[in-house]
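Run log, item B.
One chain of 539 residues. Sequence copied directly from the ordering sheet:
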Amino acid sequence: MPKFQATAYIRLSYTDDKTSESDSVGNQRKLIENFVSRNPDIEIVSEKIDDGYSGIIFDRPAFKEMMQDITGGKINCVIVKDLSRLGREYIETGRYLRRVFPAYGVRFIAINDALDTANDGSGDDLTVSVKNIMNEAYCRDISIKTRSALDIKRRNGDFVGAFTVYGYLKSEDNRNRLTIDPYAANIVRAIFRMRLEGSSANNIANELNRMCVLSPLAYKKNKGLPYAKGGYADKEECRWSATTIIRILEDETYTGVLVQGKRGTPHYKLKEVELHPSSDWIRIPDAHEAIIDRQDFDLVQRIRHLDTRAAPDQKAVYLFSGVLICGCCGARMTRKTNRIKGKEYHYYYCPTGKKKGCAHPVMLKESVLAENIRNVLKGQIDNVVSLGAVLSGVDQIKINRQLADEYTSQVTENEKQIALALEYKARLYESMVQGMITREEFVSYKNKYTKQAEQLREANRDLQEKIRDVMENRSERNRWIRHFTKFATLDTLDRKAVVQLIQTITVYGKDELAIRFNYEDEYQKAKAMAEQVQLRKAG
């Protein structure tokens, strides 16, 4: 009877060349079978295969199953093609060879390395250690080359992810390019449209579920598209949720910007994925066709910061939620309903009240406020339409060049401020060592300068985008005018018009309101330019 009950352990990494016969699963199996056929004291009782797992980690499913068989006394021998199949991490591989396997009386055989722990001297400690070190060095080298190659692809605007965002597919002509999925893209557009019209994320999800629209995960499963497995993906019923809606609304990919490098492992030996700071993300504008206009995307991001709560039985957000501000204390005003003799009356008031410092709280009737705001909006829209007509004959190239110069000047100034913040940050450690500041002050100042530099970098990214816009004749000056003119026939005020045209309404009294429109700066610049045009015509 065979003395050893063995497991044939086979591993193939995702970085291995799967076309190479020497490393294939079939070749490893055949090699082990041939070895056992020449050794009648060994019987193969099980085969464990980890296909697509790195040798640097030992948290592999088949490997863990094999260890359970060892601790359960089912096997007392492990056979691999060579040492690298067991693992490529020097310390952990050595621990299994010198401590774990001997503790359970397990015979270990690495065929190509002529290592058999049942034979004294088959593999001395020095030889095994050197091979383990070489295996780990190989893994480190592969990791560096892979990371470098992926980084180059990202910076070239190539999509290197395994799974595409909902609304896009990998192009059949180039798997590193994204192309629009017509059906899913229409759902994405509908989600943004409903959000701009006042629907909350939860109500949008409920509406899509009511219409039996497949969620992104269910859609990918139904179409046979690749998707991330595990967790939520394992649930039988994958429905739309508020979280899914919010993720779509926040994803810049839909504007044509390819954002990659958000996550990664800190070291080739660690598998835990961590979120990288936004300053390290790789952003490539116009990498693919946009589904959502940049203007609508930015508007949705602004709406996210407004108070958009609605009553449980309401499908849409209240008309002025998050827009009305108390001119006395600066708090956001809240909507309330009074019922008198079976009739409902809606008001907006300051929730802080006199007890919390609001000396002159104001209560506004919603219907009266809506009528007044509608009239003011119509006047502003008429002004913008008139400006558009005056500026239609102005040399757009000259205007674009002036705008680009303004933005470039600001970028240069921001770069100086970034350099200054980094210089201050670099001096902090020396100041702490010399006793000029405490460790707590060191940490506080370091965080302060890091945040300051990141804010400036973010501002410069926005400015660079504006520079690209004006140089490609996609000036915001034209877009914001079209943004207002599409409401030229406004008859009834709705949530969509409020959030798209108005930034804030500050209430100082029932008859005293200060309205700040969206694109206020652009409007003032256009107004000044129109006045110059009129003066030249008059002269």
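Observations after the first pass:
- The radius of gyration is 33 Å.
- The first helix runs from residue 25 to 37.
Flagged for discussion on Thursday.
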